[in-house]
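Tokens for Putative phage Mu protein gp47-like protein. Go.
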Amino acid sequence: MYEDQTYESILARMLDRIPADLDKREGSIIYDALSPAAAELAQAYAELEVNLKLFSAQTSSGDYLELRTADYGVTRRVTTKAQRKAMFYGQNDTLLDVAIGSRFSIEQVKYATKEKIAPGQYILECEVAGSVGNQHFGTLLPIDYINGLVRAELADILIPGTDIETDDSLRQRYLQRVRQPATSGNAAQYRQWALEVSGVGDAKVFPLWAGSGSVKLVIVDAGKQPATSTLVDAVSDYIETVRPIGADVTVVSAAAKEIGVSAVVTLAAGYAIQGVIDAFRAALGSYLQDTAFTSTYISYAKVGTILLSTPGVLDYTNLTVNGGNVNVALADEEIPVLGTIGLGV
């Protein structure tokens, strides 16, 4: 908005106000007196431009974005701790009970038992908040001696740990709040309630799905993957505390639709096929996450574009997505997840 308010343009306007019969050439007393003022005014205009951008949620960031969104009750989500399922075994692979609070580690990430699910099966909570608690699977090592313990295995992610919310995510939730006001138990409010539960990545609302007063909530976890039964129960329990009287609410996980891709690729010099597969898998996974609940199909053309833009890929042939060369449709309650990736040379 103030791009034209440069030092040169401000100084020129100031000098234009000086009578022509006075010396206002560079180095003159008048020029030297006005030049610092013009520089300060140009700096003030630059800071005003920055402040205007920080005032708008569309262009704001950091603490300034939080101040803007807080006016509408939207605050940045903090980091949360992962909750995992673990199994403990004694002699002859018999399930073994351990004390609540017992601590274990895997790859320098520490967990503690929080709740017993069944004999030898427990909910573990990561001691460090964030997505680091979601990353590892396999053998757990006890930090303190546990009598009779032979083996401990870290298994399912029950409620994923989350990192601090990004500016883009916070901005999107703020825009959702102001553009689709949540009130009186409408669809927008049910989605808002679901997103208030830690570990929920998104939700889709189906009003009147089973008749008058019925509402179905389909949810995914923070990684845009199908929600575990633990997370579904957590959302269901929370909705029961806030729903309008008389509403019959059903909470379910989204159904996974595996997306498998195969193609023959031409590699650039110096690239190995496994590295290309790993890079393509990561890029495709990001695209699939972005389409969860936002698109009714997976674009065949988009998958091809992602493959062609993968580092090391010069060209490709025989591209198929789920065995065909057309878009893959998604049902109302389906989300896409990574399936088999088969790239050959």
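The chain has a mean pLDDT of 93.
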